[in-house]
Structures are given as C-alpha cells and as structure tokens.
C-alpha cells in the first residue's frame, strides 16, 4: 500500500527548486519517494492525505548532538566550555550508567527530537567513565523502537583529561594530577577493535536506518595513532568520523602549545582528514584551516545555540560557504544548549551571523540555513544519497506542517516563516522511511507518558548522584579557571567572539 500526499506546498531542497515552495504531490512506496510532481499515480488501495493548507519539507538532520547529556538538561549556566566540562563530563567519580537508564535517556531524547522535526540524529554518545556494548546496545535499541534515523558513536578520549588543555596541570595538587593520570584509558588498538566489532554488530540494523560511527573526541584528547586509525576505519566502512575541533579559543591555544600549529593542520599532517570527516564546531579556524578543510572535502557541524550558551565564539559562516565547505547544523548536547530541538538552532543560525559585520549581502539566506539543516547535515553524516531532500528514490523522511496556524499567518514567504516564525507548534506529522512516527504532535511508536513517569520516579536518585560527582570535581575548578583566563588573553590570530578578523598591530 502506498501513501500519497496530494497538492501540498513542498520545499524539496533539490537542485531545481531548493527552498522555494512549489505545489506538488508525493507518492511514497516501500519507504521511498516513488513520484513527486504536479500529479502522481493514484490507485484504489492508496492512502491519500490531503495536502491542502500543508507544507511538506525534508526532515531535519541534527548534525551534532550528545544524547547522553539529556539527564543534565538545565543544570548549568555561565560556564565556558572547559569549566562546564568539569561537571558535565566529570574527570573523577562517575559510576557507569546502567543500560536500562541509558535506554530510558535515549528514548526520551529521541522522542523530543522527532517531535520537533528531527528525523536523523548524529549522536556522539559518550559514557563515563567508559562505554561498553551493553550501553551502546541500549542506545541502538531505543532508537530502533522510536523509529528515528541515526549515526551512533563510540566516543573516546584516550589521554588524561588534565593533559588535554595547556597550563592547567601545573596548578593542580600533585596528588590530584597523579590520580587522574593513573586512571585506565583505551589504547588506539583497543578502541579500533571495539569499533570494528561495532560495525559488525550493528551492520544493517533497522534496515540500515541505524549506523555506527567513529568519534575520537578531539585531536588534543586522542593519540595520533587513534585519530589516523579512526579515519582509515571510517573510510573502509563509508562511515562518519566525527571530531570536536576548534570549539573554543582555549583549543586554538592548545594547538599552538601542543603541536606548534593549528589543530586542523595537525590533523592533516597525521592523515586524519577525509571526506568522511566532520568537525564539530570549527569556530576558531584560520583562513588557511578553512582552505584545508575545503581541499579535503571535510564537513563542519555548526552549533550556534550551544556556542552562545558556553561563550565559545561565532563560527565563520560566510568564509566556510565561500570556500565550499559543507555546513550542517547541530543542537549539541542538552547540557550545553538545553534542547535537542533543531528549529531553535535553525533560527539562531539565521540570526547570529547578521551581527558579525555590516555587509548585509553576506548574511545567511533562508536557503543556506535550510540547506545546512537538511542536505548539509545529510552529507556530513554520509547519508546524502538517501536523505536531505525530497527526490525520487530517496527515503521518505519528511515533515508536514499545518499552514493554517498563527505561525504561518499571514501566509507570505513560507521558507522565511519556516526559518523565523515556526517553532514546531505547527508540525503535524513526521515520517521516517515512510512510517508515521509523529501524528498530531504525538509520537506513535512509544508511550511518552510512561517514559516520563519512569524518569520522574528515578530522578531523585539520578540527581543525588549528579550532585555527588559535581562536588568531587570542584577540585579542578580553580586550576581550569586560571587556564581559561590565560588562554582568553592570548593572541591566536583570529577573533571569533565577534566573527571578525583580529586587528593586526602596526608593522606586523
């Protein structure tokens, strides 16, 4: 049985019409878009949906997020990334999360995501103190149940955390530094073996809807052999290799102090850049870095809400576009942006870069922002042959909005209203692989009320454990505060807090 959406306003994001709405009908068979045009085939057995007063567009791709932060939503404020990480990514004292709680956390994260129009997640999953297959199985099981499409990682840090930033270790008590450095860490070989097994274990999961990806945390947090090996393994499996790079000014200083160059150039030198690589953030990139990323066809996931919340800076949006670097959009984690909902990210991306300079002709267009939220994210996830636009042969991952709502009143330019006016309240249906996973604002695949009730019952114990771990990790705060302020005062050749190039002193 096929599904036909008749005579809707459609944003296809294809090469012909892009983000310009056009009146189209869509025929969906076996989870794929079989026809799209002014008219399509109709059969007696078809389920026909009236598209009048409806806007249909591709599902959104959240190109960088951390579902594992879901339980820490709304806990922190006014902390820059390196200080925030002391509590949200604790160095000491965290106990392994049981798989049943990982599954509950992942179910809730997926529910909130799909209800806002996210059909594909690039989920950089990290567990503390380390990840095992029982925990990873729980994430795959949860996403299989909800019906979302996802790349799911084994995130890894294999250097002592106090040695992943400059200066801080010298200001820590020696016994604290020794305790951190004595903790067991994965070798490159152990992580690559784990990942090779994950590719075997999850191959074809949910008909290919769920895929494993590699996620070395960052060049300063992983050994060179792990970074290069992860890049090679990703190419072997045509999987994404997802790396945090140049998220903060501290990381720009780290590249210079650790490697005598930028972190992007270091990755290039060790063979850790490829068309399968996505850099999360990429704020403090130099012009030379951006040219290198374009040369290697590397993608960048832009996370404006999280970057603003953590005071990390403003990514060079126009410079990336001009260089031909593919941009996706990400919410980042629920502990740094406090939401997995991509409509907020889309609007923030469209607005943020209007304040980085007076040249209004360089400001983001609605088409560019929607492209990043759909095709750009799909390309970064290595899923662009299947999702990101509404075209014949692609997966039927799509959103249906009600145009009779206040968000679309008066009905003017629907693409602009989708970016600036709509916050998810007009979303009526979400389809992933031809299956309706959201109908009239409710997820059809799980009992959301039961999930919320379970979390409420367990929350006191969860929060008590979070409080305990946070207290234990305050021991690092003073040293990391000094490190952060020292790095903030240094000249790294770019000034990404305003998005403008750093001023050059006379004679330089």
From TrEMBL:
InterPro entries assigned to the protein according to its UniProt record, in alphabetical order: Amidohydro-rel, Metal-dep_hydrolase_composite, Metal_Hydrolase, MTA/SAH_deaminase
A single MF term (Gene Ontology): hydrolase activity, acting on carbon-nitrogen (but not peptide) bonds
Keyword tRNA-binding recorded: no
Keyword annotations of the record: Hydrolase
Pfam family, one: Amidohydro_1
Domain Amidohydrolase-related stretches: 55-437
Domain of life of the source: Bacteria
Protein name: Amidohydrolase
Organism encoding this protein: Prauserella flavalba
Organism taxonomic ancestry: Bacteria, Bacillati, Actinomycetota, Actinomycetes, Pseudonocardiales
């Amino acid at each position: 049985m096929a599904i036909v959406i008749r005579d809707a306003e459609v944003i296809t994001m294809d090469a012909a019409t892009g983000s310009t709405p056009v009146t189209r009908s869509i025929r969906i068979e076996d989870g794929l878009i079989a026809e799209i045009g002014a008219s399509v085939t109709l059969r007696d057995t078809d389920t026909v949906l009236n598209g009048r007063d409806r806007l249909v567009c591709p599902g959104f791709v959240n190109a960088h997020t951390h579902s594992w932060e879901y339980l820490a939503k709304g806990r922190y404020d006014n902390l820059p990334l390196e200080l925030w990480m002391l509590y949200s990514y604790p160095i000491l004292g965290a106990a392994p999360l049981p798989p049943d709680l990982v599954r509950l956390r992942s179910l809730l994260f997926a529910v909130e995501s799909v209800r806002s129009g996210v059909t594909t997640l690039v989920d950089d999953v990290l567990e503390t103190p380390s990840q095992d297959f029982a925990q990873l199985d729980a994430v795959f099981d949860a996403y299989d149940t909800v019906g979302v499409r996802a790349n799911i990682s084994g995130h890894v840090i294999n250097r002592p955390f106090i040695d992943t930033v400059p200066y801080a270790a010298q200001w820590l008590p020696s016994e604290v530094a020794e305790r951190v450095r004595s903790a067991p860490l994965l070798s490159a070989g152990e992580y690559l073996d784990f990942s090779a097994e994950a590719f075997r274990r999850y191959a074809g999961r949910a008909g290919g809807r769920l895929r494993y990806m590699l996620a070395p945390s960052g060049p300063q947090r992983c050994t060179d052999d792990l970074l290069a090996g992860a890049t090679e393994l990703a190419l072997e499996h045509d999987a994404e290799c997802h790396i945090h790079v140049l998220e903060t000014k501290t990381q720009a200083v780290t590249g210079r102090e650790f490697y005598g160059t930028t972190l992007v150039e270091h990755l290039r030198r060790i063979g850790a850049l490829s068309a399968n690589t996505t850099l999360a953030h990429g704020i403090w990139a130099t012009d030379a870095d951006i040219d290198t990323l374009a040369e290697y066809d590397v993608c960048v996931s832009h996370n404006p809400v999280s970057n603003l919340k953590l005071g990390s800076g403003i990514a060079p949006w126009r410079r990336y576009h001009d260089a031909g670097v593919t941009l996706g959009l990400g919410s980042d984690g629920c502990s740094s942006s406090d939401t997995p909902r991509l409509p907020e990210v889309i609007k923030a991306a469209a607005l943020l870069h209007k304040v980085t300079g007076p040249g209004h002709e360089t400001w983001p267009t609605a088409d560019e922002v929607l492209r990043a939220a759909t095709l750009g994210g799909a390309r970064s996830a290595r899923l662009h042959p299947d999702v990101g636009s509404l075209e014949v042969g692609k997966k039927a991952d799509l959103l249906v909005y009600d145009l009779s709502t206040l968000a679309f009143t008066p009905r003017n330019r629907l693409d602009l209203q989708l970016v600036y006016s709509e916050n998810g309240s007009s979303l009526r249906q979400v389809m992933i692989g031809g299956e309706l996973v959201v109908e009239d604002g409710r997820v059809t695949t799980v009992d959301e009320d039961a999930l919320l009730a379970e979390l409420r019952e367990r929350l006191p114990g969860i929060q008590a454990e979070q409080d305990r771990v946070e207290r234990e990790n305050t021991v690092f705060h003073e040293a990391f505060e000094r490190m952060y302020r020292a790095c903030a005062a240094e000249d790294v050749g770019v000034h990404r807090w305003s998005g403008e190039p750093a001023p050059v002193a006379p004679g330089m």
